[in-house]
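2024-03-11 09:14:02 DEBUG pipeline.ingest accepted 1 chain
2024-03-11 09:14:02 DEBUG pipeline.ingest length=763
2024-03-11 09:14:03 DEBUG pipeline.predict start
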Amino acid sequence: MKDSEFPLQKTDGRLTEFSPRAEQRPAVYRYVESPSTEVAASPGYDNLLDYWNTLFRHRMMLVRFALGGLLAAIVISLVQTPIYRVRTSLDIQGTNFLEIKGANDSTGSYATPESYVETQVKLLQSESLLDHVIDKLKLNKERPATGWRAFTSRVQRIFGSRLPEREELIRRIERNLTVRTSGNSHLLEVLYESPDPALAADFANTLVSEFIELSQEERWKSAQGTAEWLTNHLNEMKVKLEQSEAQLQDYARTSGLSFTSEKENLAENRLKELQDELSKAQADRINNQAKFEAAKSKPPDSLPEILEDPTMRDYRQRLTELQRQYAELTATLTPEHYKVQRVQAQINELKSEMQKERSNVLRRVGNEYAAALRREMLLSKAQTEQEKVVADQSEKAIHYDTLKRDVDSNRRLYETMLQRVKEASLATAMRDSNVLVVDRAKPPLLPYRPSLAMNSAIGLFSGVFLGFGFVLLRERIDRRISAPGDAQVYLDLPELGVIPLDEAAASRQISNGLYPHRSAPALPLSRADCPELATWKRKPSLLAECTRTTLTSILLPGQNGEGPRVIVLTSPCPGDGKTTVACNLSIAVAEIGRKVLLVDGDLRRPRLHKVFGVGNNWGLSDVLRGDTPLETVPLAHLVRATEVSGLCLLPGGSCGVTPSNLFYSPRMSTLLTRLRTDFDMILMDAPPMIHLADARVLGRLADGVILVIRAGQTTTESALFACQRFAEDGTRVLGTVLNSWDPKTTRGYGYGSYSDYQAYVRQ
């Protein structure tokens, strides 16, 4: 058959057959394109449950990796040299009362306190300080290196990259020494690591002591130098101050300047006083002028001075009283009466006194105005003269102020230097330090590293992660179909059923070498333990029930309303269990009351006659080679009855020619036509189809083919190759049957285990 007779169209990663033969059939035959290694190896993880199922199947592998990582971590921890870490802390204090501001201030020359602390960290790690510690502890006489350190030293010596002994010692100390700050505080933590805990503590304490001593020495030298410099310049500043003060006093005497205090000039003070007096005089003059002009323009009795004068007030009261008496007297007496005359005389005398007093008040107002005017004129003249004096002394005052500022500046500088000299003298007399040891280093009891608990945890988790990666990688490169649903994904064919692994058959396969990775003694199998007869001999078993479930999927009607009657069972490779599946399916068909014929189509290695205990002297090969018309041959001469009611067997017979040649003969088609009239279903056990053409030839004559796949053995490439060949031949593939599936190794696919089945049956 040529490939051109079956053109294939690629759609969505699959190939669909379009041919004249396919158009005549009601079904459309499809198969999956043979994928690359990466596609075939990918099991397809759609969700976390798939990952969990994969990990659960390989849980023992994960446990082995985890134990291996844990053991490796423990071994590495035990062979490593224990390293001890010691810790000491320092408090870098601020300025105290003995420090000279700007000279030896702890932070005076740094931008921020943090920069000062960072500088102290670098000083603690400086090579000069490490040299002092090495000399004090005599670390140059350290015992010879052993272990890994000796090995690295020899390698460096061979390649000529070894440093001088002291330089190498300093580099090793720098690697083991750590100085770090503690948050935003002024605390420093000094950490040192060494195989010897006592040496580590001695080194840390000596390092801190040498650092404090060097700090004190540097601060003392700085204070001493500052004191000497200040003392040398103090006398010069004193002479300069005296000269500037003498120059200021001489100029004040020669210029005639006089000051009430250091900042006030007498002439200016006098001018200010005159200005204040003139302002008051002008205000007084204006007030008196207003009174004087009012006295001239208004009636005297309306003036406030007259109205408020106490004498005038008394006169007005007396006048009122006299006028009242006069009115009373005139009411009863004549004007010539002496009483009336006497009261009238008193009134006239009182009015005369009031007129005199009124004149005195007006005269006093005029005198006050004249005095105020005269005082204003005198003050104005005095102010003008004082302004001339102040103007004359202003130029002299400017020069005087300049000299005075020089004197003040020299005085402040002299006082500051004098204070610093005293502080420096006190600082040189006392050697203080701003470094305080908070915690001294002590030899630790337990090593810092290796940490057995930490390394064990790291090794355990590393082993788990490596195992996880190994399992996923193994799943990707594993080309075998091992779990239910895999064949349906890769082949795009319905999965008709899943046949679980039979323990008795597994024991026999182990003894035959099919599972070399397992070790178990070979056990002889009786007919009751034979997996091919499990549906008959062990009816209440998981294998039998799964076979009946598979038969249900096969017997479902197709698109034309009828189920297949002639079915070929084959597998991609030998050992996939097609014979076991064929025998159990035929027994299951007989159980439902149908007549079924099981044909042994594997003429090269026939074995169905051994399973059912019948002879093989007459069989399929003999029928196909004979010349007798098949219509005239009795059915009893063609097939053999078995112990299973309703199940007949057509054994392979004694084959002397190539089986494919017999299957191509017209008698094969005639034989199937004859047998269709006598049996409800015909199952043909065909040989593996990848290397043999028998299954392909028989498939063209049957109603459909069932592809048997062995879990954990059949690869995706072989299954895809088989489906592709059937699609090219136009053979209908009903589906696949997963055989020998072990629920113990692949849980989580919705299939119960044998224990689940037993629990259900016992209820």
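2024-03-11 09:14:41 DEBUG pipeline.report The chain has 27 helices and 15 strands.
2024-03-11 09:14:41 DEBUG pipeline.predict end
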